[in-house]
Amino acid sequence: MKHNIVTAITITAIALSGIVFWETGFVELVIGLILLIYLAITSYGSFKIQANYFTTSINHGKRKAIALTFDDGPDPETTPQILETLREKGVKATFFVIGKKAEKHPELLRRIDAEGHIVANHSYSHHYLIAFFSTAKLKADIEHCSNVISEILGKSPQFFRPPFGVTNPRYGRVLKALKINSIGWSMRSLDTKAKNKYEIINRVISKLKARDIVLLHDNRAVTAASLGDLIEHCKQTGIKIETLSRLIQKEPYA
Ligand SMILES: [Zn+2]
Fold first, then answer.
1. Active-site residue numbers?
2. What are the residues whose beta carbon lies below 5 Å from ligand 1 (ion)?
3. Which end of the chain is more exposed for a tag (fewer CB within 10 A), N or C?
4. Buried b vs exposed e over 109-121: b needs ≥16 C-beta within 10 Å?
5. Are 45 and 54 in contact (CB under 8 A)?
6. 164 C-alpha to ligand 1 centroid (Å)
7. 58-248 domain in CATH 3.40.50.300?
8. What is the pLDDT of residues 59-115, one digit of tens each?
C-alpha cells in the first residue's frame, strides 16, 4: 500500500522540519505545506483507482483482448436489452451487480449467469457515503452482496469493484480479509454522462486499446443503445472481446 509509505514520509518530514525550522519563525508554514501536499496525494489516491494507492486493483488485462464490464445493475428495463445484444453478437461480458438490486431481480441474475457472463460484486447498498463506512460496516456490506449472489447462483463472486471507484485504507483491509480481487478499469466510457449513444461510441472507439477493461453501466438506456455498434467496431477492427476472468487470468467464483 502506497498510502502507508506516504504517511511515514509525511510524519518524518514534519518531525524533521520541526527540528530544522524551529528557530526560523515559519515552522507552521512549512508543516502546513507538508500537510497540504499529504492531503492532495491522499485525495488523488482515493479517486484514482488506477493509482493503486490504498488497495491494489486490477486495472488492465493480461491478454491481447478487451473485456466489457457493466456496473450498477441488474435493471429490469436495460439489462435484458444488453443481454439480448450480447447474445446476438456472441459476446460475453462481466456484470458488477448491486446486491439490493440483484435481490429484487434474481431471475435477471440467473439469466446473466446462464448466458455465460460473469456476475461480480459491486457492494450491497452502493451507498453514496460508502467510502465513509467503518471497516466493519463496509465488510458487512460487501459480504451481504456476495451472499445474495451465492444464494441465487450457488457460487461466490471473487471480483469486486468499489462503488464510484473510490477507495480508502478500509477497502484494502476488507478485501484482503474476504480474499476478493478489487477490479478497476482502464477505459471509462463516460456513459453515465452521455446524452446520446454517439458520445459513448466516439469516445470508446477513439481510446480503445488492447488489454483494456472497459467501464460501462447496464442501467443506462444510452449504453444499451450504443452496445451493438461498439461490438461491431471491435469485430471490424479485429479487437477480441473476452470475459474479465479470461482477460485477467483469474477465477471469477469460489
Ligand atoms: Zn456503481
1. 71, 217
2. 71-72, 163
3. C
4. beebbeeebbbbb
5. yes
6. 5
7. no
8. 999 999 999 999 999 999 999 999 999 999 999 999 999 999 999 999 999 999 999
